[in-house]
Prior knowledge:
Blueprint: H1 2-10, H2 17-21, H3 29-45, H4 52-74, H5 80-97, H6 99-116, H7 124-141, H8 143-166, H9 175-178, H10 181-202, H11 206-242
Amino acid sequence: MMEGLQQGLAAYGKLDPAGWLALHALLPAWVGAVVASLGGALLLVGTGHLFRLVSTPLGAAMGFFLAPGVAERLQPGWPAATVAWGACAVLALVGLLFPAGLAFVAAGVPAGFLGMRYVTPEEWVMGFAPAFFIAGTVAALAERMLAGVLASFTGAWLLLLGALAFLPALGVPVKAALAQPWGLVALAGLLGAAGTYYQVAVKPPPEEAKKLKEEKTAKKQREKEDQELERKFEKFTRGGKQR
């Protein structure tokens, strides 16, 4: 099982859509249903707390695969394995607790290296630091948009893989669809684009949604108080007429 999973994930390191889709064959039908449900949730509400299901493994992967190369350029000689596992744990924690911070690092590091090209090796800090902080700040401010894109496209892919895994258990054939891997990739792309549009352009941001909910609650409370006041007034009016 683990060997098959490693081979399935290895396909994502090259341009092999059939290999990407082959991962569904490793999923039992019930796991496929769970994966598809999670994908659908990410498509619709992935920019909220649910986004941490994306940002946490993303941070871990960034730390494990990218940190050794970064450390080698900044401080040659550091043990690659120690750097990889340490950065994996740290960035996974950042992704879990503070996704905007992960966006800061993800955008800042490449920009910092780009800035280093315009200064001498001895003055690398002068090129790295400004580009790192400027790009990181912009990415952190645009975290909701980035979250919408990542959550939607991740959700679309999980929905597709999950559906391919559990639909055969319901008697729905998927072999014909699997024969057109690029078509399925395009379908996932369209779903991801639609999810991004909904979560970024249509769905209100969390702050606005919270404000709308509070206003709705306050409106209901006012209506309840008005109705109570009307009942008391009617009761008072009837008592006056009887006297």
